[in-house]
């Protein structure tokens, strides 16, 4: 399958680790020129070295906090200045925040919505002028909790639901510019946070044993791999998905009861 990604420019928020880093790797391997941002300068530098060692491709990095509107604008502007164009936007920055309704502070509500909703709105708006004349692809990373929220899932489930509505509505408005907008809804995927739980709570288990234990209620029976999420994102921003827009793809091993 020809993905048609070579020569394109992508920017990825939260690109220094996890799904963001793995997606940066896969896009770089496809010939995409990639810009990543994160708040941690040291983590960004480590990611930059890793990506160069793996692909031989230089990655442009910007230290930025996506809860800050000015930083959102600066990341877009510096990426376009550096590469001269913008074709792909991946809004991946996010954190896990899951509590009962009466345990969520006002500060946490505001922080979560700022990071998971407004950051995506700001980067999409600021990327739009650069994509209007050439088309483009946007993928916002959300979570299956946005489709099927459960107890003790706030504020994440609410902000992710808003993010999924944003994608569906924006795809209707931006299609006339040949800009496709989709979301991937993440389930249980291997991350630094999951690995910490593994080492603290089940140090005697191998990763595969721990993955199977955590995946007992997942039809595929295990925790997902970061590259499995990155594979779907890479497909969605590629020419191979040129007629896919306004959709929400579950990456959860079949756990979610909704499509």
From TrEMBL:
Keywords noted in UniProt: Oxidoreductase
Point out the coiled-coil segments of this chain: none
InterPro entries xref list: NAD(P)-bd_dom_sf (IPR036291), SDR (IPR050259), SDR_fam (IPR002347)
Quote the Pfam families the UniProt record gives. Answer: adh_short_C2 (PF13561)
Q: What is its EC number?
A: 1.1.1.-
Superkingdom as given in the UniProt entry = Bacteria
Q: What GO molecular function terms would the record report?
A: oxidoreductase activity
The record's family statement is: Belongs to the short-chain dehydrogenases/reductases (SDR) family.
In its UniProt entry, what is this protein called? Answer: SDR family NAD(P)-dependent oxidoreductase
